[in-house]
Amino acid sequence: MEFGIQTIKELLSGYQKKQFKPSEVIGAYLTNISERDEKINSFLQVRIEESLGRAKRLDEKMCEAETLPLFGIPIAIKDNFLVSGWQATAGSKILSGYVSPYTATSVERLEAMGAIVIGKVNCDEFAMGSSNENSAFGNVRNPWDLERVPGGSSGGSAAAVAAGFASVSLGTDTGGSIRQPASLCGLVGLKPSYGRVSRYGVISYASSLDQVGPFSRTVWDSARVLEVMAGFDDRDATSSKRSVPKYTEELKNISEKKFTLGVSRKWLEGVDPDVAKSFEAGLEMFKKAGGKIIEIDLPHARYALSTYYLLATSEASSNLARYDGVHYGYRTQSATTSEELYSRSRGEGFGREVKLRIMLGTYALSAGYYDAFYLKANQVRKKIQEDFEKAFTQCDFVVAPTSPSTAFKLGEKTDDPLKMYLSDIFTLPVNLAGLPGLSIPCGLDSKNLPIGFQLIGKPFGESVLFEAAQQFEALRGEFPLPGFLEGACRR
Ligand code: GLN
User: Fold this and answer.
1) Which atom of ligand 1 sits closest to the CA of residue 152?
2) Ligand 1 atom nearest residue 206's Cα
3) Which of 122, 124, 355, 416 should be mutated for ligand 1, with most atoms under 8 A from CB?
4) What are the pocket residues of ligand 1 if the criterion is a CB atom closer than 6 Å to any ligand atom?
5) What is the pLDDT of residues 247-303, one digit of tens each?
6) Cβ-based neighbours of 204, under 8 Å, separated by 6 or more
7) Which of 408, 401, 431, 353 is nearest to 131 (CA)?
8) Which CATH class, in words, describes the domain spanning 8-300+381-485?
9) From the CA of 336, how far away is ligand 1's center (Å)?
10) 219-229 vs 462-476: helix axis angle to the nearest 10?
């Protein structure tokens, strides 16, 4: 038995049959990280002692593998989640030295159900980016091709699972940051409906768009993580009071439902030919299961990029005002007045992209421009929501490729922010509309890089989203693994 690529389901079944113990599994994953993450740079902190200690305690209680839904599951957490007593950097120098005084609700719930947080992983600074190249802690490399990006902003979360360093991981998705890296690294990535998972203890980027979600190898694993962490939290006023279905119970059998999928051909213009081909093949698979493809119209989707970059930067400029060199982390050494302290701490502590966005957001919110930019963007956001509402009167899901291209080369888009921003054209509207979106691997391009198929559901429609994704997964069959994993798994 080799470790590194097991799903939650496989680990649980092995524990239940007493084939191995948590300390063996966690030990093997930690060895994988220490020997091989040098090439990927996904982990910023590894919790060796603590996670082995937790694993050993679980060794003594093997019978709990029957009852704890995440018994002994190694999980990696994006470094914009707080874990009590651990540093949280959000990929930024400005938080250097900051230690979290409490734990994020999502992480707390996973740990309470047996999950073992083995470490915190790299990301774009304050989750701003699509390639993980905006991290103050270096690039993350894609296990499918080490010269390429893993996607972003949750690049470390995606790369860690793809490289066999964790069974599952958590990320955040404000405009695509779970789905796009999942697509580029050949994983399942889920952005739940806005309000489905508590944001308490997650470092805010754009609060009206941010959502927490899992990276996994399978749809069932994604459902398992979501059912454990979703649900109302009185410490996050935007978390929903709706009850949380037992998603994995609902996935016991592969669905035979015939789904109607909505496609907007206009929206899909300009995607990479390999991606287009693989997307069409995905549609064919649904058809084989009796599904129907219909043409829908999303007339405002083409404004999603500008709308997102006005709203997200506006919210970010306000959320990031708290990093002033006084309350948290980094403080300049060279200030003589308090004004200098603020401006130099921020000037030295924030990276280029973050500063760019704070300036954009501050401008959009300033008195003379508020109506023209922020207010207008909110009106367009409503239009985008209405487009989806209308589409959902005709179809069960809206589908699109997750990303217009596969993993690009490191440095390929860093000089052209617009080109980088375009990586998210198919994911941004989903956040603006607050909908659940799931990316599932659907094929490989001519360079052997993974391609993702995106299913977009109705608000709080995660159950049926998983159902359809699992149907797709069964039709697709086993997805290949990256070459990096050869020789990576051990006992
Ligand atoms: N790539 C988008 C951005 O740069 C989305 C980021 C995210 O979802 N956190 O803002």
Assistant:
1) 1
2) 9
3) 124
4) 127-130, 153, 172-177, 205, 312, 424
5) 999 999 999 999 999 999 999 988 999 999 999 999 999 999 999 999 999 999 999
6) 210, 315, 319
7) 408
8) alpha beta
9) 36
10) 160
Residue owning tokens 């359809």: 468
Is 198 among the residues known to form the active site?
A: no
Q: What is the mean pLDDT of residues 314-340?
A: 95
Long-range pairs of 326-335 with CB within 8 A, sequence gap ≥ 24? 328/94, 328/95, 328/98, 329/94, 329/95, 329/96, 329/97, 329/98, 330/93, 330/94, 330/95, 330/96, 330/97
Task: Tell how far the Cα of 272 is from the centroid of ligand 1, in angstroms.
Answer: 21
Tens-place pLDDT, residues 374-392: 999 999 999 999 999 999 9
Closest CA to 153 of 201, 213, 95: 213
- Between the CA of 409 and the centroid of ligand 1 the distance, in Å, is 18
For residue range 147-199, what is the model confidence (pLDDT) as tens digits? 999 999 999 999 999 999 999 999 999 999 999 999 999 999 999 999 999 99
pTM of the model: 0.97
Is residue 153 among the annotated active site residues?
Answer: yes
| Cα atoms in the 13 Å half-sphere on the side-chain side of 169 | 40
Query: What are the two backbone dihedrals, phi and then psi, of residue 92, each rounded to the nearest 5 degrees?
Result: -120, 150
| H or E element, residue 342 | helix 338-349
Q: How far apart are CA 8 and CA 12, in angstroms?
A: 6
311 pLDDT tier (thresholds 50, 70, 90): very high
Angle between the 8-16 and 219-229 helix axes, to the nearest 10 degrees?
Answer: 80
183 alpha carbon – ligand 1 mean position (Å): 14
Pocket test for ligand 1, best of 174, 205, 356, 360 (most atoms within 8 A of CB): 174
Q: Is the pLDDT of residue 487 over 80?
A: no
Neighbours of 351 (CB within 10 A): 19
CA of 175 to the centre of ligand 1 (A): 5
Decide: helix, strand or coil at residue 7: coil
Q: Ligand 1 pocket check: which of 128, 157, 203, 309 to mutate, most ligand atoms within 8 Å of Cβ?
A: 128
Question: Which whole-number Å values give the CA distances from 433 to 85, 210, 216, 382, in the listed order?
Answer: 35, 12, 24, 8
Instruction: Give me the catalytic one of 177, 193, 239, 240.
Output: 177
Q: Helix crossing, 376-391 with 304-319: angle to 10°? A: 130
Distances in Å between the Cα of 287 and the Cα atoms of 47, 250, 281 are 46, 22, 10
For this structure, is 131 an active site residue?
A: no
Cα atoms in the Cβ-side hemisphere of radius 13 Å centred on 4: 24
Task: Say what angle helices 462-476 and 273-288 make with each other, to 10 degrees.
Answer: 100
Residue 14 tokens read as 């092995």
CA terminus-to-terminus distance, the chain: 6
In this structure, the dihedral spanned by the alpha carbons of residues 329, 333, 339 and 340, taken in order and rounded to 10 degrees, is -130
